[in-house]
Amino acid sequence: MTAPQPRPASGPEAALSEALETEYGVVYGYGLVSAYSLPEFNGLVVTTIRQHRERRDRTIAILTSRGVAVPPAAAGYQLPMPMTTSNDALRLAIRMENDTAAAWRAVVEQAVETTDREFAATALGQSAVLAAHWNRALGNWPITQAFPGGQD
Amino acid sequence: MLALLALAVPACGSAPTTPVVDDLEAQRQLALRDSALAAAAGAALSDPDAKALAAALTQVVQERTDHARALAAEIARAARKPPPEDTDTPTPTAAPDAPAPTVSQVINALRAAADSAGKLAVTTSGYRAGLLASIAAACTASYAVALVAQS
Fold first, then answer.
1. B7 phi and psi, to 5 degrees?
2. Which of B118, B133, B138 has the CB atom closest to A145's CB atom?
3. CATH 3.40.50.720 holds for A12-138
4. What is the ipTM of this complex?
5. In chain A, which residues have their Cβ closer than 8 Å to the Cβ of B63?
6. CB distance from A106 to chain B under 8 Å?
7. Global pTM?
8. In this complex, do A149 and B146 lie within 8 Å of one another by their Cβ atoms?
9. Spans of all domains in chain B
């Protein structure tokens, strides 16, 4: 049994660790989205949270399998915007999917292993789809963007 | 031919089986094809109730045009040439008397494009991989959400 390696400052494992930290915050944030959004969005909330939880757990498993220290979740998170209405909740959801897309695109770019690149590219696609759903729920237009996770 | 020689150097030790520029150019052609296809499908919509669909098709035209531009810049970078003048306007893929493409055809084209860009993303690395994965994600969101009628 060897002690986990300290977190690397750059490279694929650093990008994965940062994506994991994003996913921690997003799972936390969707608890608030769930609390504040209207019941008609329950189905979307459930689908979204499940996806982020699964991805968080798989990312922890990847880091663990490589002997990289898994960063812990924070005790709490500062909301980037006020939260009083259902539309506030939907705006937070859109922002979190955009943050997720950026984090996983960084993993795609930093990855050395093909499996990491596949996993991250899938995550990027899933968050682009969820962002479109949340944009539509809010009545935004357009609901999609040309370059999820970046501005090319 | 000189340009092709310049990119025989694979990125980060990976060994692409086909020249990088050819693969990127194929992606650029897909983007231009989809842009033209979506424009033709939008122009053929007659139902005035299809305004939302027409707007979604216009957005696909814009995004796929943006993809073609970004891919042209990446091709220029790979070939170590200055990017071309932005003269690419999507050309209609069908003869004028051919039946207009349907939204289903646009959806199928985008699904194929997402698959193709996603596969290429996984075999490349760095910024190029990120760009291709982002393009694949955009195509997926378009065919899976934007072009699907709201229930």
1. -105, 20
2. B138
3. no
4. 0.94
5. 144-146
6. yes
7. 0.88
8. no
9. 19-82+100-146
